[in-house]
Amino acid sequence: MHHREYLFAPLLRPTLPVVGSDALFPIHRIYCVGRNFADHAIEMGHDPNREPPFFFQKNPDTIVLSGEDFPYPSETNDVHHEIELVVALDKGGINIPVENALEHVYGYAVGLDMTRRDLQGEAKKLGRPWETGKAFEASAPCTPLIPAAQVGHPAKGAIWAKVNGEPRQSGDLAQMIWKVPEMIAYLSRLFTLQPGDLIFAGTPAGVGAVKRGDIIDGGIDGLGEIRTRVV
């Protein structure tokens, strides 16, 4: 059989480290759920009642590890932090029933959905997609994963973010409009979920701009803390 070569070396698959393990979690896709905390929906000018969830994607290579710098992106003057629970799947599927959804979860992390808010706002006004606002380089800082086998499936607990030590975002996972099993079930009707998928589960109110030199700190009870410096 003729062996075919790549034209050039394919890029390595992005991964996340796992707490307490040498094994790496290979990332397939990153799904993000929009407006999943009532107070943030209100903050962004929307009715927080349970409209169907909506999703956008970031690319796997937008992940940067907690502790690494976040380079301030191009073509923007308004970059916002959004602290989020990150859900990591090790089983895929379609039409996953809500009651079985958590069986697909490998573990959890703390992430930041960094957003070029001015570009996102422009896109919203014009009814255009959000990639320029959401899927730019280094837009998904994330901590190493903690296996659900160690922490269970957190459904409540403080979630918070500070900039230069000043509290900005503060909420509780219990305030999520769409719970993790519902998100997985809903997504699995729209997409074929795969092992390696990450879901950024939405942010509480208090999002705001950062500038070069700022330190962003955040955390979720029981899942640790994320930290990045804007450079």
UniProtKB/TrEMBL annotation:
GO terms for molecular function: acetylpyruvate hydrolase activity; metal ion binding. Keywords: Hydrolase, Metal-binding, Pyruvate. The keyword Hydrolase applies. Residues 30-231 form the Fumarylacetoacetase-like C-terminal domain. It holds the Pfam family FAA_hydrolase. The keyword Metal-binding applies. This is Fumarylpyruvate hydrolase. It comes from Phyllobacterium leguminum. The lineage of its organism: Bacteria, Pseudomonadati, Pseudomonadota, Alphaproteobacteria, Hyphomicrobiales.
